[in-house]
Specification:
alpha/beta; 5-stranded parallel β-sheet; globular
Length: 163
């Protein structure tokens, strides 16, 4: 990582070329103010549209079979929809073309990367925690943005909240 604003050299290099469509993604946590600020900065600089995606986490299976108790509740779906709605509204107030939706899945990384391809996004912005390292991080759901960054074929900007 470069010391300049916590961005890698790759991220700063691709930032200069601009983007046409950016995916603002969340693995289920609320979309942070820092992530919103970053996506607004990138979108306004390159006149890009933004697609907002939030994941409603499916927590697994029981005995190898789907279990309704492990699916997102109505309240969890509503929280994710509200998070996307607020993000899209804020982007539109800034004059940025934006849309979004919520998907349910157990594998957030796979869904986020598939959505980036389906929506023809050339960059991904996610709020996230500090990198816990690959070995430890593979066991923590809070490290989903780092997994997305490792597997993505487009630049991924993982933004940490100040504070």
């Amino acid at each position: 990582m470069s010391a300049v604003a916590g961005r890698s050299d790759e991220e700063r290099g691709t930032e200069q070329s601009g983007f046409s469509r950016i995916l603002l993604a969340s693995e289920g946590r609320p979309i942070s103010n820092a992530a919103m600020t970053r996506v607004i900065e990138l979108a306004q600089t390159s006149h890009a549209s933004v697609h907002v995606l939030s994941i409603a986490r499916v927590h697994g299976v029981a005995f190898g079979l789907p279990n309704p108790g492990l699916l997102p509740t109505k309240h969890e779906w509503d929280e994710q929809r509200e998070s996307v709605r607020r993000a899209v509204a804020r982007l539109r107030r800034k004059g940025i073309t934006a849309d979004g939706h919520v998907l349910g899945t157990r594998n957030a990384t796979k869904k986020i990367l598939a959505e980036a391809i389906a929506e023809d996004c050339d960059a991904i912005v996610m709020g996230g925690d500090a990198d816990a390292g690959r070995l430890r991080g593979d066991f923590m759901w809070t490290q989903e943005p780092q997994r997305v960054r490792r597997k993505a074929k487009v630049p991924v900007f993982v933004v940490q909240d100040e504070g």
